Amino acid sequence: MTQSISMRAGILLGSLMLVVGHGAGAWAGEPDDPVASRFGVDAPQLAPLGELPVGVRTLHLVDKDQVDVLGYDAAQGKAPRHDRALEVDLWYPARPAAGAASVVYSASLPGEPPSAPAQFTVPGLAVRDAPAVGTGYPLVVVSHGYSNDPVAMTWITENLASKGYVVAAIRHSDPAITDAAKVPEVFYRRPLDIVFVANTLRKTLAADHLIDPKRVALLGYSMGGYGVLTAGGGILDPDSVVAKMMPGGLLAPFVRGGKSEDAVRLAGVRAIVAISPAGGSAHAWGDDGLLGISAPLLLIAGNADHTVNYASGARAFFDAARHAPRWLLTFENAGHDIGLNPAPLAMRGQLWNQDWFQDPVWRTERVNAIQAHFITAFLGRYLKGDDSYAAYLDVRVPKSGAGVWPAGESPGPYSAYSPGSGNITLWKGFQRNHAEGLELLQAAPTN
Q1: How far apart are CA 257 and CA 272, in angstroms?
Q2: Terminal alpha carbon distance of the chain
Q3: Are 301 and 330 in contact (CB under 8 A)?
Q4: Beta bridge mates, 78
Q5: Which of 42, 59, 330, 380 is 20 to 30 A off residue 79, Cα-Cα?
Q6: Is 233 helix (H, G, I), strand (E, B) or coil?
Q7: CA–CA dist 370, 368 (Å, integer)
Q8: E strand or H helix at 391
Q9: Does residue 236 contact residue 251 with C-beta atoms inside 8 Å?
Q10: Cα–Cα separations (whole angstroms), residue 194 to 63, 74, 439
Q11: What stretches of 209-330 show up as alpha helix (H) in DSSP?
């Protein structure tokens, strides 16, 4: 592993690499539209935007009296405590004023050392602070990757909001990924932030009748994947590298058998989506900690992910979470960087910056459209309770390229979507000649 990759994708502890991810409808536009949540004509059937206009606003939350992991004083044997301020970007169905301008998001990501953070902008569809419309929507809490920013995940946040979800993406305020000494804080804070934000919004947004507090899903990318698997029920192992890296044993209250084990677990989760999830190489949950997950689980990963390791990551998690109905969508030959928007123009002049966003093999717009299709089906089935989406998830052949559309079947127009029925085994919702390089495994819960 090169020095730059090592700095960015993980830190070497002895012989173990710790895994840390970097991390139709009412809308119309040309195929080259740069808005990340709007996909092209080759997108599967459920990927396009819904019919609801979208608003966005930023919430300011404070988690009182939290441990400062990085302030741990070994001489005194304790860590200071302080209030943790968190910003949460909220996307929701809205009624914008006529002619209201869509938002242009701005953010930065750590630059290649010794460079300063790289600044970029992302055009969006949402209207800042537009009045919300409707009530009782499901809530999806989103956790980004290490040193990422919610602005870089608008491909899914705006898309879901247009389909009748309230989407809350946490700004975790991570230390720079290039500072390896600070990784313990990120592993410590992820599930705590997710549980705090979800429980807070269950109260505040339900009081406004905007959401249904009983319908909550978690969606995380990379380090956010570790966070949602833990908050969704995964039980941290006291002998894991994650636990042992913590100064002063600060994670001990939250691991299996700890006095605060439930504090990193969100009660009543209805569905979990984990994209390129971290935690496997660090053996975060031990051999059987993921048995604590019973909510339906959708794992998404590339089988060439060398950052968090596919074999000990998503593939192993699929086998380990045996108490959950679960799916594993694999992009063959894809790496780790499949969770963010296409690279903004400002990030395309340097390979380090572009690699936050772009997979070397797969076109990002295509990856995101496929993910949006399956996430829409998964959340529609398990968060909205619409069983008609099951046919999109329960594919008839696990390898997408093995699906066929026999010549004798009525093909319809060139862009027709497969019905996935009769003699047509091409995955439902995909177009002919546009279903290669994917695998979808599925398993029912077992004891």
Answers
A1: 24
A2: 40
A3: yes
A4: 73
A5: 59
A6: coil
A7: 5
A8: helix 390-393
A9: yes
A10: 11, 28, 29
A11: 223-231, 241-245, 314-320
pLDDT tens digits, one per residue of 202-235: 999 999 899 999 999 999 999 999 999 999 999 9
Helix or strand holding residue 329 (H, E): strand 326-331
Average pLDDT over residues 186-195: 98
Residues 6+ apart with CB under 8 A from 336: 9, 21, 22, 222, 276, 302, 305, 306, 307, 308
Contact at 8 Å (CB) between 169 and 156?
no
> Amino acid identity of 410?
S
At 84-133, the pLDDT tens digits run 999 999 999 999 999 999 999 999 999 999 999 999 999 999 999 999 99
**Six token digits for residue 423:** 């003699």
Three-state secondary structure call for residue 351: helix
Query: Would you state the structure tokens that stand for residue 275, as one six-digit string?
Result: 């994209």
Tokens (6 digits) for 71: 């302030």
Task: Give the pair of three-digit tokens for residue 442.
Answer: 């599925």
Residue 265 is predicted with a pLDDT of 98
Confidence of residue 13 (pLDDT cuts 50, 70, 90): very low
Tell me how far apart the alpha carbons of residues 338 and 155 are, in angstroms, rounded to a whole number: 11
Strands 81-93 vs 54-67: parallel, antiparallel or unpaired: antiparallel
Using CB atoms within 10 Å of the CB of residue 252, give its burial: 0 to 12 exposed, 13 to 18 middle, 19+ buried: middle
Query: Within 10 A of 435 (CB to CB), how many other CB atoms are there?
Result: 21
Q: Does residue 125 sit in helix, strand or coil?
A: coil
